[in-house]
């Protein structure tokens, strides 16, 4: 049964445990006269809700005794630390064994259960911002919820029941109200109380006393806070409350709708409800305030609908009165006048309540503020006459600058819904003018992606209605190049909206004016060309995308993907990394394709690109853009960059049409309804019939333009080659093959040759035409090999001094061989060339020419090394096929493969280890080949039972690994020296580094890309298990310093190491690898921290690195949850404590003496790094408990004086909070042994302001870090 509380038994606010948390006294005075004076529903409340300190001291004291028993004396002489871990683990096990089981207590009868409870409640956890801990188990909370559901009765039980009829509940309440108003209202107030999560009810006597509203709420609040905390029903995620909020809001809406004709308009119903809702919405207790606010919103929303209906009826009556006056004359419309007066009276009463229910949307809780603006938007849509005014719109305007993104997002959503209604646009014109700059700012600079997307959508809506001019809308169009898909899509919709009217029409108008003028002057000339509007549209698209791309690069927007070629003089179509750079415009075109019709007109683009406008361009050169004598073609004549852009748009448009299965651009696109495979094939066939004629023409046109020629090859991917057979055009296919062959022999661009070789490989996969393709490839490989043999004929490669022309010829021949070998096995041709002698020996001699120290031949030598490796790779591939098929392998074949491998390793090792004559560029190529070669000979085929095959398996020597690591380290050091300011920021005597990471994008993109390739030389062998994991630290310590390209290598490296650990055979195997990994992680984190110690932004990169490493540990720990493995992860945190705390006593002395205020804070920041590792590592509660107890002991052993209230110790305190949080979730109460930390966690002390810096700072010593142990030594020892 629900217990009744009589008003005579209620405590006054002063008697409650939260004197400062009771409802303000002015609210008590207001509630008594609520029916007479308008009050606002949501008042401005203090920034922090009341906190109630709740705890089970008996359980806590037992826990403290157990922890004291389990904590062994700190042994500083222990090297391994095994005893410390075992002691901590034993303490953890003992504590869990002694933890009282609450299942038995839950089975007791309620009366006995009540007697068995301690004098103080068990609940020690409070909501946000409170200092207690939760010792109640999840099952206890479920039982508490079940108990409250069993006790539910009345309206609350009906709403809680998903099977009950809300309509019946409303009808029953209406009947009861007509019989006894007070009793019916009393049931409604109890419904509100129960909806706040309060199990108690108020008595009828207490309800009748209007002066005691505040006192009743204070007592109910006190009772709620004494019980175990649960989410109140309208926000609870518990299963019984899944649909509670929806049902509750529907009940109030239906009730107001049902009662609108009589109950709502009497003098008691809304007046009495208002007195309770105002008092509850003014409460400092969030369940009361939030629930009352939500109910008030439901009531107000329905009142708005009623007010709008009354307004419409009044308008109808007014029209009837006017009609009657015309028909019958004045004085014969008495019935209409009576009805109009009745409606006016109802309207005034409803308006009065609407004023009382809402006067603002101010609250410290973001969820309440967001609901305010959401409901206000609905009211504006329902009743624009009242709410679509500046006084209410100002709330939305202020909410656009709310500190919480959730509120800003809900505000934009409300505005978006309003702007979609054309009838409301005019009434919001002044609001739009005041805030359109804010919309643009949010679209460009908001942190939250959803907020940005919604802001762009609002701009799109305003552009559709003409409220945003072209200049305003154009401010966000460059976001079409954003890396985020949602932002790109939203910006594409804006461009599609304004394209026709603001971008294309002005250009067409200019063209028409010029052509009309030309026609007038040439009236006698009947051959006046007609303007091609479609081509002008294509010109307009390309022109604007090029313009927007330049703006995107100049905006320094972090969303814009800047790649290696952004600074190239040839435009962004000439990438160093072609696939990445093509992605920029491709992504923008993909975003535009569903919305902008001209982008889908692939055939129009193709026809325009085939046209040769060189003559037209020469005619208009030097003429004004509005010259009346310009030829019509000049208005769609493309510049070089525009033509490249349009070619890329064509490729994407064709790809999208094939993928979606719609070749007709006039048909609207609906991505939610994907096409069948048959429809996609039909679309591809239709496109292929056109491309069969277009592709040869484009290849001919761009025959000497390598970038455009490379892009054109992408169109071949979308061809259905069966169309050549269907159209009986096999000769056209053979002509295409011959054209490809001739182009391959003409060009020497690596990018073009790679694309062409890939296309040739793809063409061989079509069975019906494969024979013709293979014939062409055989002819091609013979030609390029013969070309190289002719170029080196009669040249003594080991000693000759090559001319520039000879180097160019040999280089071009080798690049053609290299790129074809990437996809085609031409080993036979290489071995039989040169009259059967082969050319492999000549290629080796070209590679060894790097020993002559000729820098101009570096690329030549690197290409030769790659050809030698590919030759060996194809030999291994043939060997692998033989082994897989089970064919007999002659010993001579094995010996021949071993000889080729050893000869290759001898050659490249000689180049890699010769530091003086060989340049770093060649050494990097050699080390890359070495790593790939050793990886090649660690495959599964070399694990065969055949001893001859096992003999081929080999391992990279440690000396080669060390040499490669040393080279990569020197390359990175050179890069840092060259770009020190961009990496670390401006340096002076006062600061170590400022804004270090913020300027990494100032480094030329091409150099960042080259560094990425350099790091990959070391990362790849580590990832595949060829190099030892310990070498990974060379790359990982610089994570976050050089931009996203380098960070991607580091991320892939960590992923590869994680997989390598997981696939290491045997328990001892994976433990040994894990140990090496942990040692490397210690070195990486420590060195990264030392590099970052000068600035906050640089510290963040170490934190990100720690999270990434911690995540790899988490995955590995889940796969190998054994005790020995867990100890490795614990050791990393323990070593981290040693690293930090060894120096703390000396630094504290310096701090107190005023020698150095910064050193202590910088040193303690490492706790932030350890916190990131702890949060992502996924250590078990057992491990975390061991870590926590070790931290307590080492603090005591080092005699560290912790001042948890000081700003310098904030990161330590946050680390301890995370320890406590993890243990609390496991049902363990952890209290630090350090008294200052314990007091701070319990809320008995507050943070102190940070101590000011001295006028003269002590210069920090820049120490090169090798490990935790070496860096943890005192400063005097290190010096």
Description:
This protein is an all-alpha fold and 1279 residues long. Among the domains are: 151-359, no CATH class; 364-475, Serine Threonine Protein Phosphatase 5, Tetratricopeptide repeat (Alpha Horseshoe); 531-561 and 569-612 and 631-749, no CATH class; 767-952, no CATH class. Strands 1-2 form a two-stranded parallel sheet. Helix 51 (1144-1152) packs antiparallel against helix 52.
What is the typical, i.e. mean, pLDDT? Answer: 75
Please report the number of helical segments. Answer: 58
Please compute the radius of gyration using only Cα atoms: 39 Å
Physical arrangement of strands within the biggest beta sheet: 1-2
Work out the helicity level: 55-70%
> How far apart are the termini?
77 Å
Topology:
Blueprint: E1 4-5, H1 25-32, H2 57-70, H3 82-98, H4 103-106, H5 110-116, H6 138-151, H7 154-160, H8 166-179, H9 181-195, E2 201-202, H10 204-208, H11 213-226, H12 244-258, H13 269-281, H14 286-328, H15 334-357, H16 366-382, H17 384-387, H18 390-399, H19 405-419, H20 422-425, H21 429-445, H22 449-464, H23 470-474, H24 485-521, H25 533-554, H26 578-592, H27 602-610, H28 614-620, H29 640-660, H30 677-701, H31 706-716, H32 722-726, H33 730-746, H34 750-763, H35 770-791, H36 804-821, H37 827-832, H38 840-848, H39 858-884, H40 891-913, H41 920-936, H42 947-950, H43 958-978, H44 980-984, H45 1005-1023, H46 1033-1036, H47 1044-1062, H48 1067-1092, H49 1096-1119, H50 1123-1141, H51 1144-1152, H52 1158-1164, H53 1166-1177, H54 1181-1197, H55 1210-1225, H56 1235-1241, H57 1268-1272, H58 1275-1278
Parallel strand pairs: 1-2
Helix pairs in contact: 1-13, 2-3, 3-54, 8-9, 8-12, 9-13, 12-14, 13-14, 14-15, 14-16, 16-19, 19-22, 21-22, 22-24, 24-25, 24-26, 25-29, 26-29, 27-29, 27-30, 29-30, 29-31, 30-31, 31-34, 33-35, 34-36, 35-36, 36-39, 38-39, 39-40, 39-41, 40-41, 41-43, 41-45, 43-45, 45-47, 47-49, 48-49, 48-50, 49-53, ...
Domain SCD: 357-442
Biased composition (Polar residues): 1264-1279
GO cellular component, one term: nucleus
């Amino acid at each position: 049964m629900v217990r009744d509380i009589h008003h005579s038994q209620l405590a006054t606010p002063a008697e409650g445990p939260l004197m400062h948390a009771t409802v303000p006294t002015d609210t008590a005075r207001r509630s008594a006269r609520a029916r007479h004076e308008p009050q606002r529903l949501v008042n401005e409340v203090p920034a922090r809700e009341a906190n109630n300190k709740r705890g089970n001291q008996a359980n806590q004291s037992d826990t403290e005794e157990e922890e004291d028993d389990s904590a062994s004396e700190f042994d500083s002489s222990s090297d391994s630390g095994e005893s410390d871990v075992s002691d901590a683990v034993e303490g953890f096990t003992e504590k869990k064994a002694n933890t009282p089981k609450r299942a038995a207590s839950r089975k007791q009868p309620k009366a006995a259960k009540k007697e068995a409870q301690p004098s103080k409640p068990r609940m020690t956890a409070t909501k946000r911002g409170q200092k207690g801990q939760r010792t109640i188990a999840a099952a206890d909370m479920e039982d508490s919820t079940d108990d409250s559901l069993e006790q539910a009765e009345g309206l609350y039980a009906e709403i809680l029941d998903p099977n009950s009829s809300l309509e019946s509940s409303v009808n029953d309440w209406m009947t009861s109200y007509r019989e006894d108003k007070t009793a019916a209202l009393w049931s409604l107030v109890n419904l509100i109380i129960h909806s706040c999560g309060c199990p108690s009810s108020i008595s009828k006597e207490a309800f009748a006393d209007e002066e005691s509203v505040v006192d009743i709420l204070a007592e109910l609040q006190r009772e709620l806070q004494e019980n175990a905390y649960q989410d109140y029903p309208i926000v609870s995620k518990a299963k019984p409350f899944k649909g509670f909020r929806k049902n509750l809001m529907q009940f109030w809406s239906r009730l107001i709708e049902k009662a609108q004709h009589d109950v709502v308009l009497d003098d008691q119903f809304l007046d009495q409800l208002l007195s309770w809702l105002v008092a509850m919405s003014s409460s400092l207790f969030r369940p009361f305030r939030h629930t009352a606010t939500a109910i008030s919103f439901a009531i107000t929303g329905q009142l708005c609908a009623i007010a709008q209906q009354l307004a419409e009826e009044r308008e109808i009556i007014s029209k009837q009165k006017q009609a009657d006056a015309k028909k019958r004359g004045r004085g014969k419309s008495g019935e209409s006048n009576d009805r109009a007066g009745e409606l006016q009276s109802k309207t005034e009463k409803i308006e009065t309540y609407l004023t009382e229910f809402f006067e603002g949307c101010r609250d410290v809780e973001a969820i309440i503020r967001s609901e305010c603006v959401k409901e206000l938007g609905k009211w504006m849509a329902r009743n624009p006459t009242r709410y679509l005014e500046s006084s209410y719109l100002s709330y939305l305007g202020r909410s656009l600058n709310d500190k919480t993104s959730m509120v800003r997002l809900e505000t934009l959503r409300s505005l978006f819904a309003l702007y979609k209604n054309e009838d409301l646009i005019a009434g919001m014109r002044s609001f739009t003018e005041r805030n359109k700059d804010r919309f643009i700012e949010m679209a460009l600079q908001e942190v939250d992606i959803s907020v940005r997307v919604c802001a762009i959508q609002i701009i799109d809506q305003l552009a559709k209605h003409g409220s945003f001019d072209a200049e305003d809308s154009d401010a966000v169009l460059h976001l079409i190049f954003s890396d985020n898909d949602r932002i790109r899509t939203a910006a594409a919709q804006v461009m599609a909206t304004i394209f026709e009217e603001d971008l294309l029409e002005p250009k067409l108008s200019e063209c028409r004016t010029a052509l009309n003028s030309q026609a007038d002057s040439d009236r006698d000339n009947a051959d006046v060309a007609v303007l091609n509007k479609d081509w002008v549209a294509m010109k307009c698209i390309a022109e604007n995308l090029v313009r927007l791309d330049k703006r995107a690069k100049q905006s320094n927007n972090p969303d814009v993907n800047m790649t290696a070629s952004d600074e190239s003089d040839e435009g962004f179509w000439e990438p160093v990394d072609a696939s990445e750079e093509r992605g920029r415009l491709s992504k923008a075109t993909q975003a535009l394709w569903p919305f902008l019709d001209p982008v889908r007109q692939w055939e129009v683009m193709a026809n325009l690109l085939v046209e040769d406008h060189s003559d037209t361009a020469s005619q208009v050169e030097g003429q004004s853009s509005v010259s009346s004598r310009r030829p019509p073609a000049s208005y769609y004549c493309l510049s070089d960059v525009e033509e490249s852009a349009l070619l890329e748009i064509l490729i994407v448009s064709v790809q999208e049409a094939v993928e979606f299965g719609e070749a007709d651009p006039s048909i609207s696109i609906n991505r939610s309804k994907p096409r069948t495979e048959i429809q996609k094939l039909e679309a591809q066939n239709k496109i292929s019939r056109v491309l069969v004629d277009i592709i040869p023409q484009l290849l001919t046109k761009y025959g000497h333009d390598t970038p455009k020629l490379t892009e054109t090859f992408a169109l071949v991917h979308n061809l259905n080659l069966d169309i050549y057979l269907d159209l009986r055009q096999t000769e056209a296919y053979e002509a295409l093959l011959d054209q490809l062959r001739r182009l391959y022999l003409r060009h020497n661009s690596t990018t073009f040759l790679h694309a062409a070789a890939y296309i040739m490989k793809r063409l061989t996969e079509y069975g019906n035409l494969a024979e013709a393709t293979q014939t062409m490839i055989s002819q091609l490989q013979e030609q390029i090999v013969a070309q190289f043999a002719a170029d080196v004929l009669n040249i003594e490669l080991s000693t000759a001094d090559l001319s520039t022309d000879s180097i160019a010829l040999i280089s071009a021949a080798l690049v053609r061989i290299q790129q074809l070998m990437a996809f085609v096995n031409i080993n036979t041709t290489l071995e039989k060339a040169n009259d059967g002698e082969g050319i492999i020996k000549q290629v080796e001699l070209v590679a060894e020419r790097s020993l002559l120290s000729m820098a101009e031949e570096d690329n030549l030598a690197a290409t030769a090394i790659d050809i030698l490796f590919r030759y060996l790779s194809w030999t291994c591939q043939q060997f692998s096929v033989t082994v897989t098929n089970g064919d007999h392998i002659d010993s001579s074949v094995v010996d021949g493969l071993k000889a080729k491998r050893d000869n290759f390793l001898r050659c490249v090792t000689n180049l890699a280890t010769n530091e003086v004559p060989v340049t770093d560029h060649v050494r990097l190529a050699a080390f890359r080949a070495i790593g790939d070669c050793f990886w090649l000979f660690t495959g599964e085929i070399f694990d065969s039972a055949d001893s001859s095959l096992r003999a081929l398996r080999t391992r990279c020597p440690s000396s080669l690994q060390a040499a490669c690591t040393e080279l990569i380290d020197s390359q990175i050091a050179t890069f840092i020296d060259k770009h020190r300011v961009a990496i670390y920021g401006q340096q002076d005597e006062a600061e170590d580094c400022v804004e270090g990471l913020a300027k990494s994008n100032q480094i030329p993109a091409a150099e960042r890309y080259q560094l990425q390739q350099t790091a990959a030389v070391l990362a790849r062998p580590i990832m595949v298990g060829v190099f030892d994991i310990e070498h990974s630290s060379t790359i990982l310590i610089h994570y976050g310093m050089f931009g996203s390209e380098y960070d991607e290598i580091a991320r892939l490296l960590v992923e590869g190491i994680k997989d390598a650990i997981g696939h290491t055979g045997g328990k001892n195997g994976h433990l040994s690898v894990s140990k090496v990994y942990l040692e490397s992680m210690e070195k990486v984190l420590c060195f990264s921290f030392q590099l970052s110690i000068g600035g906050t932004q640089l510290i963040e990169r170490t934190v990100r690195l720690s999270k990434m490493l911690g995540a790899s540990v988490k995955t590995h720990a889940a796969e190998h949850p054994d005790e020995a493995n867990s100890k490795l992860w614990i050791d990393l945190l323990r070593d981290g404590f040693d690293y930090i705390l060894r120096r703390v006593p000396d630094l504290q002395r310096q701090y107190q003496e005023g020698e150095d205020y910064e050193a202590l804070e910088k040193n303690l920041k490492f706790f932030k790094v350890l916190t990131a590792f702890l949060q992502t590592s996924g250590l078990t509660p057992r491990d975390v408990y061991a870590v926590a107890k070790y931290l307590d002991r080492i603090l005591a052993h080092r005699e560290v004086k912790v001042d948890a209230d000081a700003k310098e110790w904030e990161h330590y305190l946050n680390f301890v909070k995370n320890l406590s949080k993890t243990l609390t979730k496991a049902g363990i109460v952890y209290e630090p042994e350090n008294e200052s930390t314990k007091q701070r966690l319990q809320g008995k002390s507050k943070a102190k302001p940070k101590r000011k810096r001295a006028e003269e700072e002590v210069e920090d010593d820049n120490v090169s870090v090798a490990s935790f142990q070496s860096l943890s030594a005192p400063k005097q020892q290190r010096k």
